[in-house]
Amino acid sequence: MAEWFTNEDGNPQISHEDGTFRIVPVPAYGKRIPPGFVVEELNTRYRFADPNWERNGTRHDSVAIAKNDVASIFAHRKELKGFNRQERSFGRGRGRSTPWGKADSCTTYARGVQAYGTPSHGGFLLSKSANDQVHPAWRNEKGAYEEDSEANIVVITFPALFTRREQEMARRAAMNGDPHRFMAATGMDVPHEASRKLREEAFLEIHKGCWMVVSASGRDDGMVAVIATVDGIREPNAERRTFLVPADDYVMTEGHFVVDLTRHAELETEPTFKP
Among 44, 152, 169, 261, which residue carries the largest CB count within 10 Å? Predict the structure, then answer.
């Protein structure tokens, strides 16, 4: 069994038949994301190119969590060998038409469950019989499920066709960004700490009627000029006011910044930037 070792850069590294990975530290990002660690995989796919490291997955809070993620990747790749997914390549723009353009590739997971790729995007297309198995709460009547935000629906509907890692990632993504339909379709509760969407909704409810930033621009004097509307509404006819916020204060919460009318001075002149 492969073991972790410390490489010449002082970082944890592991080599396995299913890939070579290392864990590297990353600095803090902005004011809300502290330092952490990311997993990188050695890319040796291209025969005549020099090997290079590519980031695999998201940022982790500790080396231990990052190592668990690598173990999950190894398990995922082992499971994949037991599936009978059939992959086809058509060439650029030579495949069937899809909602995302002409397909250049197709992966068949089972009868009626296929994923198509195009030069720019892709997603799952389900046959009528397969689509009928999708819960009405999030069923697309055309059987088309875009790869970024709706592929999770297919994974959750047909778990036997996907690895445990794919299932877990789909559940997390659905709970995070689409919690209401997830709960309706699965009957499972979603805690607020597992869902960015639920936290944002709670934040907006608490600050209903407040002035929220819709656009901002940094200045040389350590201030940020912001344009705000009530509830952060972005309609063209919404009333807009401009405020000055100290750069150290300008930290988003759940994707929003609420202007403090008692502390943030209002500008009478229109800013030179547009929302």
Answer: 152
Candidates 145, 149, 105; CA nearest to 126 is 145
Q: Where are the alpha helices (DSSP H) in the chain?
A: 63-80, 128-131, 151-157, 164-177, 179-186, 196-206
Per-residue pLDDT of 170-214, as tens digits, reads 999 999 999 999 999 999 999 999 999 999 999 999 999 999 999
d(CA 59, CA 74): 18
d(CA 237, CA 235): 6
Round to whole Å and give the CA distance between 267 and 244. 7
Which tokens is 99 given?
């909602």
Determine the pLDDT at residue 92: 74
Radius of gyration of the chain (CA): 23
Contact 185, 137 (CB under 8 A): yes
What is the value of pTM for the model shown?
0.86
Residue type, 61: D
The two three-digit tokens of residue 1, written as one number:
């069994």
Distance CA 99, CA 95 (A): 12
Output b/e per residue, 8-19; b: 16+ Cβ within 10 A: eeeebbbebeeb
- Identify the sign of the CA torsion 150, 154, 157, 163: negative
Q: How far apart are CA 179 and CA 40, in angstroms?
A: 30
The two tokens of residue 164 are 């445990």
Strand partners, 14: 21
